[in-house]
Design a protein that fits this description.
By secondary structure, the chain is mostly helical. Helix content is 78%, strand content 0%. It is elongated. Bound molecules: MU-OXO-diiron (FEO).
């Protein structure tokens, strides 16, 4: 059994992961509307991965005998000024999620909750990967600059992302 405080924090993280899923789906819809089908496909896969992150925590809470409590999801943004602006927002969002995960891990350590601490290791590693992959995409956008053909090539490249 985990503490009530830890269960509350993990429930809040379910909400943050579901919001991530919602945000990336909104980004995917923006790309669909602006005809960047590859970026849209990439964001749709990202969205479903975030849903899986939420479900990992959902299942963990059930496994340790805690109550899952779902809350309201914030409305995500729906317009951006450019494809780069979308990925910059995604990057900012992942840094925010990383900070949340680190705080959860700190709490687990402080409570000497070894099970939750070990459970959170997967998320700590996942955040390194997510921040790195979005950083790389932003670097590619910066290399491209105003080159439209290169932008279409990047759209095609990201569209080839396979589901994990
Ligand atoms: Fe589930 Fe992208 O953090």
């Amino acid at each position: 059994m985990i503490s009530a405080k830890m269960a509350k924090a993990l429930n809040e993280q379910i909400n943050a992961e579901l919001y991530s899923s919602y945000l990336y789906l909104a980004m995917s819809a923006y790309f669909e509307a602006t005809n960047f089908k590859g970026f849209a496909a990439w964001m749709k896969i990202q969205s479903s991965e975030e849903y899986e992150h939420a479900m990992k925590i959902y299942n963990y809470l059930i496994q340790v005998g805690a109550r899952v409590k779902l809350a309201v999801l914030e409305k995500p943004n729906e317009e951006w000024k450019s494809p780069l602006a979308v990925f910059e927002d995604a990057h900012k969002h992942e840094l925010y999620i990383t900070d949340r995960i680190n705080k959860l891990a700190n709490q687990a350590v402080a409570e000497q909750d070894h099970a939750t601490n070990i459970f959170l290791h997967w998320f700590v590693n996942e955040q390194i990967e997510e921040v790195a992959s979005i950083t790389l995409i932003i670097e590619k956008f910066n290399m491209i600059g105003d080159n439209k053909s290169a932008l279409f090539i990047l759209d095609r490249e990201l569209g080839m992302r396979a589901k994990a």
